[in-house]
Amino acid sequence: MAPPRIRSTNVPDAAPDASEGEKMGPRGRKRLRAVPSLRGNPALDGNDGTAHQPGGPKTKRELRREARQARREAEKARAEADAEPVVVRPLARPAKVRKRHWGLVLSFGLMVLAPVGAASWYLYTRAVDQYASTLGFTVRSEDVSSASDLLGGLGSTLGGGANNDAEILYEYIRSQEIVRQIDDKLDLRELYSRHHEVDPLLSFDPDGTIEDLVDYWERMLRISYDSGSGLIEMRVLAFDPQEAQAIAQEIYLESSETVNELSAVAREDATRYARADLEQAQERLKEAREALTAFRVANQIVDPSADIQGQMGLLNTLQAQLAAALIDLDLLGDSVGEGDPRATQAQRRIEVIRARIAQEREKFGADGQGPAGENYATTISEFERLSVEREFAETAYTAALAAYDAAQAEAERQSRYLATYIRPTLAERSQFPQREMLIGIVALFGFLAWAIGSLVYYSLRDRN
């Protein structure tokens, strides 16, 4: 190998590069590190390519010779490193099936394959087809504002809204009450226990109690309720499509009747207080009128005001007659003497008129007596009191009657009714039981139980 040309004062390093060192073993790299490098050689120290030693300078030929010597030593060290023997380990032997492996296979068959096989056999050979009928409805309320709101919102006593009624209806459909009512009409026990001998797991036991029937009802009825929109949707299962539709239709009828009862109760609550106020005002008006009638009968007078007007008219007439008699007496006094009979008669007339005026005025005094023996002041006071009570009773009755009419009208406007958006459907093919899904669930849970059990067993085994 020809030595490299030295073009500058810096002699290139003769050590191998990093890539060659990585190909060697640890011993080869150690030997390479032991080879002296030209870059650290004290024989080459200068910038002009000349050697500086204590004995004197070296020529370029000597420098080339030393470089070739260093390169040969490096190649020798590399060859020794490559000649280092490589240890080849033997390949692992194939694993053998042991007893614990057979235990895993057996447990997998018992915990996974056996349940899946049993479920598949039952679902495809014993389980009876089930048909679904879908029904959807909501509770609506006609709430229309009217002029009766000007009376102070008398119709605002209606409690709850359509959503509250929908929540009540949702709980009612899942209750024992509706199960009992539908059982009385359609005989749910007979419908659901007809195939008990063939399909004992998915059918109803004919000897079950009402509580068992309610539990089975919750299995055959899937109901959902949206609290935001108030929509109720349900799916009813039965072993016959007509029976499923009949059960769904009966649920709708019972729900509609329940909503009507809730609406009637709401109307009754809305008009209860208004009706009570109306009855109280009516009784008060009746008592006031009866008291005024009794007063008129006792005093033998229909209207004391009119009677007083008559008495005042009589006094005015007597006053006019007295004035005329006095004038006549004055005229007679100018033409006749004092003993004249005409003057005496005129004087007597004046006295009689004055006496009558005095008697009529005494009727209005404290000691005066009216038609019933009482003075006019007491009679008039009692009559005015009874008249005021009657007027108040009439005003209260008018207001109570208006409030009752407004409450009744508002209750009618806010009546509830059941609005159906999905009528009971009639299925044409069976969709239940969902055999593939049930088998998949059995397989999933069986595999999880087997995997967890195996992990726990081997964990305890390795610990021991």
UniProtKB/TrEMBL annotation:
GO molecular-function term, one example from the UniProt record: protein tyrosine kinase activity
Coiled coil (UniProt feature): 271-298
Region of interest called Disordered, as start-end residue ranges on this chain: 1-81
Keyword field: Coiled coil, Membrane, Transmembrane, Transmembrane helix
Protein origin, superkingdom: Bacteria
Biased segments, Basic and acidic residues type: 59-81
Bilayer-spanning residue ranges: 102-124, 437-460
InterPro entries: Bact_polysacc_biosynth/exp (IPR050445)
Statement: the UniProt record of this protein carries the keyword Cytoplasm: no
Protein name: Capsular polysaccharide transport system permease protein
PANTHER family: FERRIC ENTEROBACTIN TRANSPORT PROTEIN FEPE, TYROSINE-PROTEIN KINASE
Organism: Limimaricola soesokkakensis
GO cellular component: plasma membrane
